[in-house]
C-alpha cells in the first residue's frame, strides 16, 4: 500500500466502508492509515461552534 498517497488511502478507506466490503480488508486499510499517523475519516475530530446551531 506504499504506492498510494495519503489522500488515495483515505479515499480507498471511505469507499470500502461505503461499499460495505469485508471487514478484514477495511481493517488492513485502517492499520495502514494509523501506521502513517493519520486518522480514518469517521474518527477525525470535528470542532463545531455552538453558536452555529443558534442561527
From TrEMBL:
<dbReference type="InterPro" id="IPR015064">
    <property type="entry name" value="Sda"/>
</dbReference>
<dbReference type="Pfam" id="PF08970">
    <property type="entry name" value="Sda"/>
</dbReference>
<dbReference type="InterPro" id="IPR036916">
    <property type="entry name" value="Sda_sf"/>
</dbReference>
<protein>
    <submittedName>
        <fullName>Sporulation histidine kinase inhibitor Sda</fullName>
    </submittedName>
</protein>
